[in-house]
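Job type: complex structure
Entries:
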Amino acid sequence: MRLDNMLIAEGVAGPEKGGGAGAAANASAAANAGDSAIEHSDYRAKLSQIRQIYHQELEKYEQACNEFTTHVMNLLREQSRTRPITPKEIERMVQIIHKKFSSIQMQLKQSTCEAVMILRSRFLDARRRRRNFSKQASEILNEYFYSNLSNPYPSEEEKEALARRCGITVNQVSNWFGNKRIRYKKNIGKAQEEANLYAAKKAAGPVLPVSPHTTYLQGTSPYSMSGTPGPMMSPPPAEDSMGYGMSGMNGSGYAGAMSYEGLHQVSPESPDL
DNA sequence: GGATATGATTTTGG
DNA sequence: CCAAAATCATATCC
């Protein structure tokens, strides 16, 4: 019964959603830049495809089961001319048939569950759907990072502020700083120092009212600031291309290959009587 | 197409 | 639990 529960939870089994699948795409349209709506509807489209196949197959099995039961009953009726057959016996036979078919249906359910799982991991695993942050967001984050090189650990509030300004989540800010710290450290002496051009930006506008709380790690700055900031006062051209269209999103990347075919060949072989 | 950049997740250490 | 490090998987550049 676990399979049933899962299928219902995923919206495959259970009551059919009336006609339109757009009913669920209104919840999270407010906060972020609305890029999750597209993939979500795409996801739902694929899910509904699975659901359709599932119901189709289920019905087919049901039908086959009924047909087969009728067939067996006819056989038994013929046999009853030569030997007595009790109703008990007939009932037992029917039960056996139903059990067989329900186990076949169980296979279908399991395959469907697998397909749903694959679909989920394909579409919902954010790692596979990575999108670069906008130019502006990177600017903001880098600005903060290089302005606080001695302590690049924004507090929770600062993370929230950064997240708001960048249009990303706090978690993404944390990820970004985690990646940035480790990758900066790996490159000390390389062009990273060069990227101190963000320090120049700081002069233009103190956009970050950074609270001066530096708790641990204050004295032992692990980022050694190796003294070659260099005279690279080249002002950033600030080419705000702004062309961050995320409308590509061809859905057919994984679409057909979800290996959901081939599970409806579970031919209702006759139960060995 | 491969090399590199980059966001996200997993593993590991305190 | 948080952060570093390693790793994964995709985007983007050339």
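Summary: Residues 125-128, 130-133, 171-172, 175-176, 178-179, 183 of chain A lie near DNA strand B (CB under 10 Å from a C1'). The CA atoms of residues 81 and 176 of chain A lie 81 Å apart.
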